[in-house]
Amino acid sequence: MRSKAIKKLTALLLAGTTAAMAAGCSAKPEDAATDFGGNGGGDGTVTLNVINYHVGTDYAADYYSYLFDSFTKTEEGKNVRFNFEEIPTTDAFNQKIKLLISSGTLPDIVLNGGNNIIEIAARSGKVADLTPYFDADPEWKALFDERSLEFNTVDGKIYGVPVSKEISYVYYNKDLFKKAGITPPETAFETWEEFFDACEKFKAAGITPLGMDTADSGWLSNLWFSALIATQNANGEKWMNTAYPTDYETPEVIGAAKKLQKMLAEYTTADAAGGKYDPMATHFFNGEVAMFPNGPWMIPDFKNTEKAPEGFYDKVGIMLMPKYGMSLVPTPGDMVGASDPTKIKAAVAFLKYETTVENQIKALEMTGLQPVSPQVIVPAELKANDPLMAEVLDIGAKAKTTYGQNQAYWYQNVIDAFSVILPDLAYYNITPEEFCAKLSEAARKN
Known about the structure:
Layout: H1 7-17, E1 20-23, H2 29-32, E2 46-52, H3 61-71, E3 80-86, H4 90-102, E4 109-110, H5 118-124, H6 131-136, H7 138-141, H8 146-151, E5 153-154, E6 157-158, E7 165-173, H9 174-179, H10 192-204, E8 208-210, H11 219-230, H12 234-240, H13 251-266, H14 277-285, E9 289-294, H15 299-303, E10 316-319, E11 325-330, E12 335-336, H16 341-354, H17 357-367, H18 380-385, H19 387-395, E13 401-403, H20 406-409, H21 412-426, H22 432-444
Parallel strand pairs: 2-3, 8-9, 11-13
Antiparallel strand pairs: 1-3, 4-12, 5-6, 7-9, 7-10, 7-11
Helix pairs in contact: 1-4, 11-13, 13-22, 21-22
């Protein structure tokens, strides 16, 4: 899941949650927030500063804890120590990184927070050109497909190391489909008309059809919106695979906005307008909504009894978006914010370790992150032990339309505008045409 914060909330989070923690080194908490100076001890150790949002209940917290710890036990990482600042939400993290890009010092390793900031980071001059490191290690470079590297390239130079691929589709509650007397489609609803007919049947049975949100980028609503645009026709598909669009007043986008407005007004929870992802996910875990768009990183949560009831995993099914649509995009990669050559070398060594075939499989097992490398062969044991993940690994081949989504392809300020004006769309304070015009207005400011 990806998200961004409302500025006031971000300020509170950043003020209240900054903490320093070290693996094998000591850090001054008062220095952790913005002062990323110094290499570390005179004993040959190199200290890398990291702002880490994979903490607490984050889906990948355990994996990144393993990753940072195990790297220091390798030959390449034995002299590396990490100085962490913890920020417990992706929205706060993304706001902090954007602030540091404009005025501040970036951490030595800049983790991918979901939003595509590769270009603004590269043009700021505050992240390292990683092209020489890829060129010097053809075996490492060969792990990545050309599209993923191109996505992380600005003016012919690679600035980000992709660590996964991002796909999304629809989870559904089998029990709620049965209660409403609806047979789940084997792969996808053939048409959006069938989908909306099912939504009406859920309403008639007293069941909320859809999980949606508007705050922190409106991630869930964005996934529905992207599918509505891309699956309309060839023009919609092309538009949803275009980077940094500036014209949102096309027939496909306006048509999708009309349907999105109906979904927000009639088919989702009362708290969706103004609501964040986490409470919406809780609705799904509690069996309160029938269909929920997201990606494979959510699967471990279905077994986590701190988030979902015992046995919830077995109640979940997977389908593509209506008309066999699926979001499929390369991801913005992790970057190196260090300027000292010794730190850059150590940071690149970590990124190489993070993207080994073994660790891509480990990430899939622990977090559901899809391997970025076509060389990764998923173990049969994993497929056997995790049927939902096995289904995810196979479902992509059944998609007839694949497309991007806003956090990959839109300007950052347009993502912000989308989130801010979604409640107005939900409450019919603006028309779909006005909604799209506001997005165009935001885009053209770039």
